[in-house]
């Protein structure tokens, strides 16, 4: 069964290459070069979605500039058996020695199965899921984007007039909730009277509902919007169209909002990808589990747009420097929405505190519910 | 506080209905015309997506969004014509062809649309119908796109034309009984070909609204099944163009329900409210089926009712 599928895939790849004229299919027909390193990257959506996938694709483009490195990419790979098939053809046809699987749902079982099947290939997955029970040629890498959202929150908190900020979120999973909380902590630090209202769309990518959510938040009085969805294009454009300010997410959305863009929270996967390529080139082992924020240059803020006031810029720059130096974001007193204490007065949580990885709550000051 | 919340939700649903309904309306009118002639074109989802891509691309390349709308219409017409031409062959099932056309249309749109995800194209202008109110939210809700108004006019025109014109009679006869139409000397295949083409044109225009007005950008997940829901909506509307308009508004409002409720603080169970349009599609399907009778108003030649 697997073989038959594999053949069909090979055929499709070959014929697709003939149609387009240039594709990995043709390159894949000849054996991979002995020298050099081939790296395979899989995306769950289009590479130019102004969001999650684009952030990885930008890094992949930077990786291609490294001499001796060949990058093979496949976009729109659903979180199904298609992952395994794509990985298999990247390894068997293109000779990939390192696979970056960039979508959450790729990991279990697809990346794990492939890691067992190809023990001499390295697999790295972009979410903190690896445990020491998993194959040692697999691993996780992730950026602590909430640090950049916190800096966004500082700038946004100084930009609101209505003291209401809006957050369009996809699904109430840990990473998303943590970004919302950190954004809200940034806002409250500079503007204690402000609240952050969140609307969950329930899907990673649902443009019409994202636009509806953005409009609903603006109708409810929010005058600064940000989001955590796969492709923030629609949210940022809707905010700009309605004349409110916005903060970006995942990749740079600055060109979409020439008037109201403040700044954005971006990944900088390039740092990790280039580092891994260099390590493999030198024959060094790759880390199995690595995560970082500003300190490791894994995340960054989008260059300030026209919506950022000098005051906001100064405060955000200072906050970023603080986080980079290791100052905590979660400084007490912080309560959860239900009133229970998360961080006591005078205490604080480290930016990499393990309990933050399992965020399943929103903090006080955030309006909205997880369920 | 309760009152404020309720009026906000109602206003948001009204605004949502106006914003979201236009693509539903155009696809539904196109499908209504096609089904009245006796064929089902399930491919309109693909036509919608391709129309969205074509309109965005043309608007970006030429700087004229209205030219984009026109090109989207003609691209949709080409898809409709293809469906119509294939379905006149012997032994071809129009539903199967429709599904094939749906995949073909979305695939082609993704293929050509790659280059247009990044650029920002000029969008369609809006008409301010809210000049009489000082409530800024109401004024915003009443800011409508000319295509919405054209859609309403079209719904009325089609409703009138089905009843009162020769062309309307020809289409209805073809859809209700092909032998009767043949006896009248009507070229059944030609009528269906033209009706499917015209239906495709409308679906293409609906796509142009998605990419050029609301949400107003081209991304691959843009339609999220609206083209398919619009087909269900035609059945709900009992093949009546005026009812299509009402149903489109209702679907638009249902889509706005989830975000609107969350914005006023009713945040529990948002998954359910977000699923409202799909749940509604399902409920309508269940309510409107019966093994004992064919649907009132259903064209007799439709392959699902025959």
What this model shows, in words?
The complex is a heterodimer of chains A (371) and B (306). Chain A is an alpha/beta fold. Chain A has two domains: 2-21 and 31-138, Response regulator (Rossmann fold); 145-266 and 301-367, Rossmann fold (3-Layer(aba) Sandwich). Chain A has helices at 2-20, 24-29, 52-64, 81-92, 107-117, 145-157, 174-190, 207-219, 233-241, 269-281, 310-324, and strands at residues 37-42, 69-74, 98-101, 122-125, 140-143, 164-169, 195-200, 224-228, 245-250, 261-267, 289-292, 299-301, 330-331, 334-335, 341-343, 348-349, 366-367. Chain A has a seven-stranded mixed sheet, sandwiched between helices. In chain A, strands 2-1-3-4 form a four-stranded parallel sheet, sandwiched between helices. In chain A, helix 1 crosses helix 4 (81-92), helix 6 (145-157) runs parallel beside helix 7 and helix 6 (145-157) packs antiparallel against helix 11. Mean pLDDT of chain A is 87; it is low at 1-7 and 9-34. With 306 residues, chain B is mainly α. Chain B is 71% helix and 1% strand. Chain B contains 13 helices and two strands; from the N terminus they run H-H-H-H-E-H-E-H-H-H-H-H-H-H-H. Chain B has helices spanning 2-36, 44-62, 65-87, 94-113, 136-141, 146-164, 166-176, 178-183, 188-212, 226-236, 241-263, 270-274, 276-288, and strands at 127-128, 143-144. Chain B has a two-stranded antiparallel sheet with strand order 1-2. In chain B, helix 10 packs parallel to helix 13. Chain A binds chain B through residues 45-46, 48-50, 76, 197-203, 205-213, 215-217, 219-220, 231, 233-234, 237-238, 241-242, 255-256, 367-369, 371, and chain B through 8, 11-12, 15-16, 19-20, 110, 114, 117-118, 120, 137, 140, 210, 214-217, 219-222, 224, 226, 255-256, 258-260, 262-265, 267-271, 274-275.
Write the layout of secondary structure elements.
The complex is a heterodimer of chains A (371) and B (306).
Chain A (H helix, E strand, L loop, with lengths): L1 H19 L3 H6 L7 E6 L9 H13 L4 E6 L6 H12 L5 E4 L5 H11 L4 E4 L14 E4 L1 H13 L6 E6 L4 H17 L4 E6 L6 H13 L4 E5 L4 H9 L3 E6 L10 E7 L1 H13 L7 E4 L6 E3 L8 H15 L5 E2 L2 E2 L5 E3 L4 E2 L16 E2 L4
Parallel strand pairs in A: 1-2, 1-3, 3-4, 5-11, 6-7, 6-8, 7-17, 8-9, 9-10
Antiparallel strand pairs in A: 10-12, 13-16, 14-15
Helix pairs in contact in A: 1-4, 3-10, 4-5, 6-7, 6-11, 8-9
Chain B lengths: L1 H35 L7 H19 L2 H23 L6 H20 L13 E2 L7 H6 L1 E2 L1 H19 L1 H11 L1 H6 L4 H25 L13 H11 L4 H23 L6 H5 L1 H13 L18
Antiparallel strand pairs in B: 1-2
Helix pairs in contact in B: 1-6, 1-9, 1-10, 1-11, 2-3, 2-4, 2-9, 2-10, 3-4, 3-9, 6-7, 6-11, 7-9, 10-11, 10-13
């Amino acid at each position: 069964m697997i073989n038959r599928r594999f053949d069909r895939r090979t055929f499709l790849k070959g014929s697709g290459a003939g149609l387009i004229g240039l594709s990995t299919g043709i390159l894949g027909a000849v054996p991979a070069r002995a020298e050099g390193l081939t790296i395979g990257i899989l995306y769950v959506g289009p590479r130019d979605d102004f969001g999650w996938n684009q952030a990885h694709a930008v890094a992949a483009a930077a990786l291609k500039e490294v001499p001796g490195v060949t990058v093979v990419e496949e976009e729109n790979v659903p979180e199904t058996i298609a992952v395994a098939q794509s990985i298999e053809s990247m390894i068997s046809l293109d000779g990939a020695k390192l696979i970056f699987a960039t979508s959450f749902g790729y990991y279990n079982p697809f990346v794990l199965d492939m890691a067992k099947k190809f023990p001499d290939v390295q697999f790295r997955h972009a979410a903190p899921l690896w445990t020491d029970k998993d194959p040692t040629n697999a691993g996780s890498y992730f950026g602590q984007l909430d640090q950049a959202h916190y800096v966004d929150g500082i700038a946004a908190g100084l930009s609101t007039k209505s003291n209401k900020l809006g957050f369009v979120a996809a699904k109430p999973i840990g990473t998303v909730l943590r970004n919302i909380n950190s954004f809200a902590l940034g806002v409250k630090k500079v503007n204690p009277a402000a609240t952050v209202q969140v609307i969950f769309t329930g899907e990673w990518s649902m443009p019409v509902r994202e636009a509806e959510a953005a409009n609903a938040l603006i109708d409810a009085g929010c005058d600064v919007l940000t989001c955590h969805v796969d492709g923030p294009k629609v949210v940022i454009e809707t905010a700009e169209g309605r004349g409110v300010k916005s903060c970006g997410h995942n990749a740079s959305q600055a060109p979409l909002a020439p008037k109201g863009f403040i700044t954005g929270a971006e990944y900088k996967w390039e740092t990790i990808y280039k580092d891994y390529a260099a390590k493999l080139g030198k024959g060094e082992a790759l880390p199995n589990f690595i995560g970082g924020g500003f300190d490791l240059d894994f995340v960054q803020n989008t260059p300030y747009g026209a919506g950022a006031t000098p005051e906001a810029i100064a405060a955000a720059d200072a906050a970023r420097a603080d986080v980079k130096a290791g100052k905590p974001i979660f400084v007490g007193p912080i309560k959860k929405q239900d009133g229970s204490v998360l961080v006591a007065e005078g205490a604080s949580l480290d930016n990499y505190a393990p309990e933050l990885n399992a965020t399943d709550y929103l903090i006080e000051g955030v309006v909205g519910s997880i369920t | 506080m309760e009152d404020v919340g309720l009026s906000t939700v109602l206003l948001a649903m009204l605004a949502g209905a106006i914003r979201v309904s236009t693509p539903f309306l155009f696809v539904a009118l196109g499908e209504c015309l096609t089904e009245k002639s006796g064929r089902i074109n399930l491919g309109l989802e693909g036509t919608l997506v391709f129309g969205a891509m074509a309109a965005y691309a043309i608007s970006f390349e030429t700087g004229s969004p209205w030219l984009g709308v026109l090109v989207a219409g003609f691209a949709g017409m080409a898809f409709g014509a293809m469906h119509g031409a294939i379905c006149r062959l012997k032994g071809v099932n129009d539903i199967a062809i429709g599904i094939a056309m749906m995949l073909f249309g979305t695939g082609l749109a993704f293929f050509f649309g790659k280059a247009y995800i990044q650029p920002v194209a000029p969008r369609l202008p809006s008409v301010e119908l809210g000049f009489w109110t000082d409530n800024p939210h109401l004024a915003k809700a009443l800011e409508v796109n000319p295509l919405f108004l054209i859609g309403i006019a079209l719904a009325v025109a089609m409703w009138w034309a089905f009843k009162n014109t020769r062309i309307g009679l020809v289409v209805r006869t073809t859809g209700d009984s092909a032998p009767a139409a043949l006896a009248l000397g009507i070229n059944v295949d030609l009528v269906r070909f033209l009706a499917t083409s015209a239906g495709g044109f409308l679906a293409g225009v609906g796509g142009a609204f998605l990419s050029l007005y609301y949400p107003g950008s081209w991304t691959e997940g843009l339609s999220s099944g609206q083209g398919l829901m619009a087909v269900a909506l035609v059945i709900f509307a009992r093949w009546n163009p005026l009812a299509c308009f009402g149903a489109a508004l209702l679907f638009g409002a249902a889509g706005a329900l989830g975000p609107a409720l969350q914005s006023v603080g009713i945040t529990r169970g948002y998954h359910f409210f977000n699923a409202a349009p799909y749940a509604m599609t399902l409920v309508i399907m269940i309510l409107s089926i019966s093994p004992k009778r064919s649907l009132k108003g259903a064209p007799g030649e439709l392959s699902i009712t025959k």
